[in-house]
Amino acid sequence: MLILPALVMIQAPVPVPAAKPDPVPLARIELTTPFPVHLGSVGPREAREALFGIRSTHDRPFRFRVLDLSLGLSLDEAQLAAPMQPGEVRTLRLKVDPSGLEGPIKGAVRLGTDDPAQPNYILRYDMTVRPEVAVDNTRKSLGDVAPHETPEARFHFTREGGDPLKLVLAGELPPHLAAELVHEGTTADLRVTLRPNRLKPGTTAGLEVLKVETNGPRQPQFTLYLDWRIATPVVPTPSRLVFTDLKTTLLGLELAARDGKPFRILGAEIQGRGFELIDAPGPEAVRHTLRVRRTGRQTEAVLVLRCSNQETPLQVPLRFLDPGAPATPEPRP
Description:
By secondary structure, this protein is mainly beta. The chain folds into 3 domains: about 100 residues, Immunoglobulin-like (Sandwich); about 100 residues, Immunoglobulin-like (Sandwich), CATH 2.60.40.10; about 90 residues, Sandwich (Immunoglobulin-like). It starts with about 30 loop residues before the first strand and ends in a 13-residue tail after the last strand. A 4-stranded antiparallel beta sheet has the order 1-3-6-5, with no helix packed on it. Strands 2-8-7-4 form a 4-stranded mixed beta sheet, with no helix packed on it. Strands 9-11-14-13 form a 4-stranded antiparallel beta sheet, with no helix packed on it. This is DUF1573 domain-containing protein.
């Protein structure tokens, strides 16, 4: 007798539809003032007031309650004591205290109601809190400086809040800089003077980094930058002659007037040993080329040039980097 196996039908499970999220209750108010409220630039101790105009669109009275406040925000809840009537327009006044804050700030107050059919309301504001101590600019430039000039750059500091400002220059200055601090109540100036005659020969540009300490608790130190360029009437190319190996014994120097006019080299001499000037100064010209030969292993000398269009002598450093010399250990900090 042939027995056929029973056919069992397997029915796939019926998918259960996902539960729909609870609908967000409809808002029952409208704002009658711009949103969010922009308070603009605010001093570190300058209290401000944020105003929010609210109109009820509900058909029955309801009350507000405060759920949350941002740092520095306060609200007199007496403004919320009376219920909002249908169609009523009310102005909420919030006090904003920026103490302890700095930079771009966003805040809000979150309000709830005694009506479960209403959502929570978030009233937002923003502002930029100025630092207590500030400087007009952290980077300044003296631009092109003639060798005989002594230009001055001024960094102007201010302190808000009424307390006097005190500055201290941290660290030592290089010999070619002089600094003076001038205090006047809540303001102070750092005056920095460049003295080109104290620069090392061949120095044509610089970027000075200055550290200034203040008595502001939130701005205890500033880093300032000052750049400059020495604009001599005669421009040497390159600004210094550097011999880097034993095989190179001859290098050339090209001299040109910054204004493009002809000039004469009145005198040329090398101060120091180990180098020799091959070319004698020629007649007046727009450009001059001089060659210098290395004759020894001395490492430093200076080529001093007197030119008809420049009051002070032009100094061009001469260097020999001996590859066979022992390495100089780096100074320990």
